[in-house]
Amino acid sequence: MLTIRYPTLNDADALLAFEIDNRAYFEHWINARPADYYSLDAVRAAIAAAQADIAKDRAYPYLVCSGDAIVGRVNLVDVTRPYFNRATLGYRIGQAFAGQGYASRAVALALEAATGDLRLSRIEAVVRPQNAGSTRVLERNGFRAFGRATRCMYFQGEWHDLIHYERHLHAPPPPPP
């Protein structure tokens, strides 16, 4: 069974192993993390920063787990309140789990959290046009494309376009600030 949950410091060893094991695979799709990220101290610092972001309603980073194993990450970042109640979605699934529906399910779970406790009403995402897998994940989860930004992301020595996606959740508005 696939679940999502917030990371804790107890996850540091497993999260570091996950990131190291999938480093080359992820760098095929997204910009590389700095080399010094791949240490236990750096991962612990990233988890502490994630916990601070959650406490301040700035971002909601989740681990995607199958049983006790970390198989991916799904994040709701750039939370904007009180008037927009929106966030940006990002996700990554480990190479060994790609193509098995894990990304689609992880995104669905993040959308459930966004609609429920987080009370977000709009989620946005971007994807490079050549990333057909991510396009399918978003479309299966009810996202629709609403625009294209040209030559806006520098990746692997070239400028790339991004397709912008959105999903309206119709969550109840949060209480006034």
UniProtKB/TrEMBL annotation:
InterPro entries, sorted: Acyl_CoA_acyltransferase, GNAT_dom, N-acetyltransferase
PROSITE patterns the UniProt entry points to: GNAT
Keyword list, A-Z: Acyltransferase, Transferase
A single MF term (Gene Ontology): protein-N-terminal-alanine acetyltransferase activity
Membrane-spanning intervals of the chain: none
EC number: 2.3.1.267
Pfam families (UniProt xref): Acetyltransf_3
Keyword Transferase: yes
Similarity field: Belongs to the acetyltransferase family. RimJ subfamily.
Protein name: Ribosomal-protein-alanine N-acetyltransferase
